């Protein structure tokens, strides 16, 4: 089993940063991304139940997203 060691960098005894393996960092980034998606879906679920909510066609929405560059989003 691989160890998941980390190094804590301090400044006068106060923690400043943590050095972790790239693999652990990638897993953490994936976790944060999934958590963000979940939170956004929860918000959307609440908004979809509002009386003035307007439905959108998924194919049209994805076509609009694909036609824009990442900087336009």
Oligomer: single chain
Percent strand equals 15-25%
Distance between the termini: 42 Å
User: Taking Cα atoms only, what radius of gyration do you get, to the nearest Å?
Assistant: 20 Å
How many beta strands in the DSSP annotation?
A: 2
Annotation field: number of helices? 2
Series of secondary-structure elements, N-terminal to C-terminal: EEHH
How would you describe this structure to a colleague?
The relative contact order is 0.07. The protein has 2 helices and 2 strands; from the N terminus they run E-E-H-H. The chain has one domain. A hairpin with a 2-residue loop joins strand 1 and strand 2 (14-20). It starts with 5 loop residues before the first strand and ends in a 6-residue tail after the last helix. The chain has helices spanning 22-48, 58-67, and strands at 6-11, 14-20. Strands 1-2 form a two-stranded antiparallel sheet. The protein is an alpha+beta fold and 73 residues long.
Structure characteristics:
alpha+beta; 73 residues; 18% strand; two-stranded antiparallel ribbon
How do the helices and strands line up, and which of them pair or pack?
Elements: E1 6-11, E2 14-20, H1 22-48, H2 58-67
Antiparallel strand pairs: 1-2
